[in-house]
Amino acid sequence: MFFLLSFTSSAQDSSHIRVSLLTCTPGDELYSTFGHSALRVTDSSSVSDIVFNYGTFNFDDPGFYMKFIRGKLLYYVSTADFPDFKEEYQTTNRGMTEQVLNLSATEKIALMHFVYNNAKEQNRYYQYDFFLDNCTTRLRDIIVQFKTNYPPLKPVMPANTRFRQAIHEYLDKGGKYWSKLGIDLLLGAPTDAVMTTAQSQFLPDNLMKALDSTNPQHQLVVSESKLYPFTPADNGHSFFTPMVVFSILLVFIIALSFSGNKKIILFLNGFDGLLLFLTGALGILFVFMWTSTDHSMVKNNFNLLWAWPTNIVFAFFVNSKKNWVKKYLALLSLGLIIVLLSWFFLPQQMNNALLPVILLLLYRSYRRYQLF
Fold this sequence. Notes:
The protein has 372 residues and is an alpha+beta fold.
């Protein structure tokens, strides 16, 4: 029955065009952790087979790193011959699934003209947003735009799933615990919002599954295939996760704190200054990301409750015996206790690997307070 449906559809289609969604599995690099989507347009009349990629950026762009940090880096549509695109992913051990879209001849011609025009130099650039406007959501929007009677896509994630939970699944599966920590440090409370069905489709796998689940009569996809054999690599997970490393550091510093050795005391004085300086620098980074970038998900970062920007200044006075230093230590200790007590009730899901760090900061702050 399915073969007959495909044959009849092809026989009635005089465009000689095939449009398909390519979904690529995650890779080893952080930027490829969540997979990738691209659009393949095959025109048998002109013997062309082109992949349109909406997730391209240029490392050689002047001021690349500052633009990237501030969320002002423009991404663009790039094109590649399908054999080259396929080879790149196959040689890096990343799987690829192709879903041939059910479009009429008129719809395919209109879509093809759109993407070719969109790939022109004057049209190709756009303001990328990882969660709200990325390589996958762009393709979803194109399909919606050109597919007549487009059925609402069904949800493929549990109800009330949050953005942070969605990306945690990929980071945990890939054993990228340090990357997870860095991401949790930078992403603020907006990342803990519950996703709508449409918003969940920022992940390539979710869009692919949504097309499948909304396709009982082949309204959206006429065929689906794995383009080459693929065996997921088992990279293993390191024992030295942030939680393990920071817990060892906590125990080590607490043990040293009971020593009266002058060299150890000198070391702890330097360590306290460094710890305060680093937490202050983190706080300044959080404020900068919140106030001076276009990244929507880094606003309202509750990590500022423990990473006070003022610590970077206080670090240079940590050994002072002035009265204001004692008051600052008392205030800092009180603030950290409140953070710990409210840890699991904050509007933002905090990374639990930070608990040993905060306990260490609290312990050393209180110990220094006791010296007065």
